[in-house]
Amino acid sequence: MGASAAWHLAREGATVVLLERDSIGAGATGHSGALIRRHYEHPVGIRLAHESLEFFERFRRHTGYDAGFVRVGFTTGARKRDVPSLKRLVALQREHGVAVKLVELDELQEIEPAMDARDLAVGLYDERAGYADPVATALGFANAARGEGAVVRERVDVRRLVRERGRIAGVRTARDTIRADRVVVAAGNWTPALLATANVRLPVRFVRGEVAVLRRPPDFGTPPGLHFDYYNDTYSRPDGTRDTLVGYMGTDPTKARLRPTPFDGTVRESTAKDLRSRLAARFPAMARAQLRGGWAGLYDVTPDLYPIVGPCGPSGLHVAVGFSGHGFKLCPSVGRLLAQAVLGNGESPALDALSLARFARRRPLRPVAPFSKGRRLP
Ligand SMILES: Cc1cc2nc3c(=O)[nH]c(=O)nc-3n(C[C@H](O)[C@H](O)[C@H](O)COP(=O)(O)OP(=O)(O)OC[C@H]3O[C@@H](n4cnc5c(N)ncnc54)[C@H](O)[C@@H]3O)c2cc1C
Fold it and tell me: pLDDT tier at 261 (50, 70, 90 boundaries)?
């Protein structure tokens, strides 16, 4: 988010300094499943995801760098009782410019020959969905920002926000103070702690997300594209040519009181085996897949599972936080929104919808065509 915002701002002529405590991509971004889908249940999510997918498709043309976007398509399915909800969702997505298709089972089976779809009644297909390399994406934005005149400083730890006369005046790092009349905090899981230094409280909690990487058996055949399996609680996608990445769609509320530091980024073998057996319930040949490893990251989760983007707290301060496990794919459009907010370039319905104020006003975003039943989607 920070690198994308830096690029969007720099090409508008702003003087930009991008500060990163570690190396670019070291946070949730580098641990992302990096699925890029437009399967959202609210118009704001659908439109931002659609804009971002179009950007990923032309990432090199826009930035001069390669984000490693691979188009593999997206499928999901509904059991009989959920068919009306899926139909509503398809209608909503189509209304907002996303040409998803409702597909009968024989067509779903043609798209995904390895799938066991016997429990399903109907499927959904988005042929433009895919995945990218999240580190290459973040670095692509950062390098492109540098090319537009931004200064990119790694290994610089921002310790606090500097406030003067009720407005933001810069940031204090471990080494120096950088003065700025506008500051964007996009520090992922560390954003709430940084904002607290300017007395801004955010309704964000942390939830552990785990993924496993499986080597498909050599006789597997065509690898499945992106898939959401609501009934066995997995999302999956190919990872390179021979592996499949799989994670849980659900969020375990008992693990919701975590802190960003210290954090155990490893995945237990029992978890990887559980993910494999859930995936094999949908793609039976995956039962013979070999465990190749995995990792864990933290999701910064808001009460309505949508991020907080735009101005907050003292004048001049902006934030992008609370991506609730699905932010990577949105980074192109959210970077654009942040630049718009910082430069004061006109009204934006998306910025209104994603404002921090929505929680105080008790107007959280609610799914317009709910299908996930409260699940956090990657
Ligand atoms: C396991 C997992 C799977 C996921 N899968 C998907 C997916 O399939 N699709 C999808 O769209 N999203 C997915 N997500 C979510 C997505 O990765 C995040 O929403 C997104 O990467 C957040 O980006 P960010 O820039 O807000 O935060 P981050 O990537 O965390 O970036 C914040 C940066 O700020 C730096 N920083 C922190 N504190 C300071 C400080 N004080 N000073 C200077 N720098 C600081 C950090 O080092 C970090 O690099 C997944 C997340 C996880 C953990």
Answer: confident
Residue 284 alpha carbon to ligand 1 centre in Å? 32
Ligand 1 pocket test: pick from 17, 21, 133, 207 the residue with the most ligand atoms within 8 Å of its Cβ: 21
Task: Please work out whether the CB of residue 322 comes within 6 Å of at least one atom of ligand 1.
Answer: no
Q: Is 22 in the pocket of ligand 1 (CB under 6 A)?
A: yes
Q: Provide the 3-class DSSP secondary structure of residue 270.
A: helix
Cα(19) to centroid of ligand 1, in Å? Answer: 14
Task: Answer yes or no: pTM beyond 0.85.
Answer: yes
Strand ranges for 69-108 from DSSP E: 70-71, 74-78, 101-103
Name the CATH architecture for the domain at 2-67+133-204+303-360.
Answer: 3-Layer(bba) Sandwich (3.50)
- pLDDT at residue 372 above 90? no
Q: Is 78 in the pocket of ligand 1 (CB under 6 A)?
A: no
Which tokens is 178 given? 């950088």
* β-bridge partners, 70: 131
| CA separation for the pair 201, 168 (Å, rounded) | 16
How confident is the model over 309-348, as pLDDT tens digits? 999 999 999 999 999 999 999 999 999 999 999 999 888 9
Burial string for 120-138 (b: 16+ CB within 10 Å, else e) reads bebbbbbebbbbbbbbbbb
- The domains of the chain are located at 2-67+133-204+303-360
**Size of the chain in residues:** 378
Buried-state track 78-108, b at ≥16 Cβ within 10 A, e below 16: beeebeebbbebbebbeebebebebbeeeeb
